[in-house]
Amino acid sequence: MSKEKISLVVPCYNEEEVLPYFYEEFQRVAEELEDYSVEVIFVDDGSKDKTLELVRGFAKEDERVKYLSFSRNFGKEAAIYAGFEHADGDYVAMLDADLQDPPSLLPEMLYAIKEEGYDSAATRRVTRKGEPPLRSFFARRFYKLMNKISSTEIMDGARDYRLMTRQFKNAIMQMSEYNRFSKGIFGWVGFKTKWIEYENVERKAGETKWSFWKLLLYSLEGIIGFSTAPLAIASVLGLIVCLAAFIFLIVILVKTLCFGDPVAGWPSMTCIILLLGGIQLLCVGILGMYLSKIYLETKNRPIYICGETNMETEEK
Length: 316
Ligand code: UDP
Ligand code: MG
Fold this sequence. Notes:
Blueprint: E1 4-12, H1 19-32, E2 36-44, H2 51-61, E3 65-70, H3 76-86, E4 91-94, H4 106-114, E5 120-125, H5 133-149, E6 158-165, H6 166-174, H7 182-189, E7 193-198, H8 212-226, H9 229-259, H10 266-299, E8 306-309
Parallel strand pairs: 1-2, 1-4, 2-3, 5-7
Antiparallel strand pairs: 3-8, 4-6, 5-6
Bound molecules: uridine-5'-diphosphate and magnesium ion (MG).
Magnesium ion (MG) binds at residues 96, 98, 100, 203, 208.
């Protein structure tokens, strides 16, 4: 009987400092999982450093190493998608190159799928040690909010690190949207997921690619992609303002009829105009955000462009 295969998908963007450590760890884990054939697919997301050269080097000496290099930086989500597209293992895992997702958890994750009957094993951090406090605070708020306004369940502290069956992976590939938010996509497809908890591990080397600003934009991506609640906010705000205006109208009418004095001061007028203007802009803004997503989605652009690979690709 031939061995079952595990494919590890690793997105890399400017990871020259940490890749040698990762490769070492990969060899160790592959040895531990000797009953399986393990392959690793490095997806170079348009790195500007020596990442691609390093990966080419690994691939030359080790036939378990596959790689794929983008023509420019397309983002981690695109890298994951590309890796999945080429992963043909019976089990597929995705993990970061910086060893924040310890490959040593893989045997435990495999056990959950094979013996305990789960379709995927995912990881979540129970601590956020080593992270700026402000970032942790906003991250927690984000998960709370997201779970309130979206029917897709998103686990607090969930990492993208996950092992899944081929069936689970195929379900994810069916979600071929352009605006990709993995945490939401994983929740959306359903199936049984086991959550494995572990303490936050700090990056082995190199630097994080996520600034606070980038994370904020990413969280908006999540909200817009998996909830339509902001659209409802616009309608509710409109309704409240209408009601308030109606009550205000009656008050002024009664006041004028009883006491005369129709001309009240202009400051109150200015405030009202500003308030209404603000609310209108906010609502148009919300509409605009959804519209921009629709716009990008309808263009139907490819999610990534491959520049170089050592795997077979179908010409599209
Ligand atoms: N990454 C990527 N493309 C990007 C940004 C990041 O492929 O545009 C990869 C990166 O190489 C790493 C993973 O995504 O393997 C997570 O990035 P990072 O460690 O910087 O994020 P953090 O762990 O700080 O959230
Ligand atoms: Mg990291």
